[in-house]
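User: Could you go from structure to sequence for me? I need the amino acid at each position, not a summary. Structure tokens:
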């Protein structure tokens, strides 16, 4: 990503993050005076960069925590706050085309006459807790491991247009695509 794109993301999403943060603080009764308590060790730009590096390169939270000099839980919280903002923003293919849902992707591919490529990927996860009623749904028949599955749609040039939410990996790729 270029510096201009990152600057655009910061200027667009920074105020949204700050607004949500303030709303979360004011939604509950205060136990301390205004300004008291721990200060953020990660400013919004660092939170955004950590999230982008994690999503683009699959860097673990532990590595990001070492890189930014914070605890793993801080990175977990930061990515958990910024990722929904990125999802709401949607994917921009061209400056005038924003894709926010699978229906938008299908409409875009149909209007442009482009070909889309859809593929499923499994991500290994820890085994769900023993008391969980749907524990068996996470076992992948293909890889014989506990996993979640996600579907990704790209264009002919390999640009990611859409990524589905994760689901338990017990269903086949074609079933996941139909759903």
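Assistant: Here is the amino acid at each position, in order:
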């Amino acid at each position: 990503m270029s510096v201009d794109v990152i600057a655009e993301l910061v200027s667009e999403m920074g105020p949204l993050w700050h607004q949500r943060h303030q709303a979360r603080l004011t939604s509950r009764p205060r136990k301390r005076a205004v300004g008291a308590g721990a200060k953020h060790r990660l400013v919004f730009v660092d939170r955004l960069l950590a999230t982008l590096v994690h999503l683009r390169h699959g860097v673990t939270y532990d590595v990001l925590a070492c890189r930014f000099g914070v605890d793993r839980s801080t990175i977990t919280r930061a990515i958990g706050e910024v990722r929904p903002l990125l999802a709401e923003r949607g994917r921009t293919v061209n400056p005038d085309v924003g894709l926010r849902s699978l229906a938008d992707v299908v409409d875009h591919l149909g209007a442009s006459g482009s070909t889309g490529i859809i593929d499923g990927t499994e991500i290994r996860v820890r085994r769900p807790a023993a008391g969980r009623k749907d524990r068996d749904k996470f076992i992948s028949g293909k890889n014989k491991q506990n996993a979640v599955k996600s579907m990704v749609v790209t264009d002919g040039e390999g640009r990611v247009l859409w990524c589905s939410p994760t689901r338990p990996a017990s269903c086949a790729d074609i079933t996941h695509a139909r759903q």
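One structural detail worth keeping in mind: The chain has six helices and six strands.
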